[in-house]
Amino acid sequence: MENKYLLHGKLTAKPGQQKELADILIQASQLVSTAKGCTLYAVSHDQEDENAVYVTEIWDSKDDHDNSLKVEGVRELIMKAMPILDGAPTKGQELEILGGVGI
Amino acid sequence: MENKYLLHGKLTAKPGQQKELADILIQASQLVSTAKGCTLYAVSHDQEDENAVYVTEIWDSKDDHDNSLKVEGVRELIMKAMPILDGAPTKGQELEILGGVGI
């Protein structure tokens, strides 16, 4: 079996729009929650950075992740998030899970 | 309710010892899997970095994480990992979960 895929990325909101960005990402998590291969989609923040929002996803495969971007409504949420981002999103860390628990 | 705690950290093994380090961390995940508040303990690697091992943990609280270090056998595993690390471990990212799925 293919190892699971972990994506850990940071998005930076324009000043004052962190909560709005986090809310959009939480809506996205709900849309993809029933997509094939979705194990985790966590939206978090760093208490020492008032503009950053982190997304940590675990999928059965990278393909499952990529397909989730086509789930109905996800594209609309991405379009809604783009104008409140402070610059282009940086590429997330793409990792391959070797083992552990709760996966 | 307190928001959950996410810890994402990178450990670097001495050359050739990545698999051994990952195996030790997977053993640690098994020891803490039944500890209070453990939601996720994923051990992963970056296909482009042959020495790094990543640990991504989700706990009900930071206290639950801190207490997991006292689980029987964990200290022994940490002692076993220390000599194969390439330098001191860097501090992981400590994040607070705002929402999402699979948590």
TrEMBL record, chains A, B:
- One of this protein's Pfam families, by short name? ABM
Report the transmembrane regions from the record: none
UniProt domain ABM: residue ranges:
5-97
- Molecular-function annotations in GO: monooxygenase activity
Q: Which UniProt keywords apply?
A: Monooxygenase, Oxidoreductase
What's the domain of life for this entry?
A: Bacteria
Do you know which SUPFAM superfamilies this protein is assigned to?
Dimeric alpha+beta barrel
**InterPro entries membership:** ABM_dom, Dimeric_a/b-barrel
Protein name as it appears in the record: Quinol monooxygenase YgiN
| Protein species of origin | Chryseobacterium camelliae
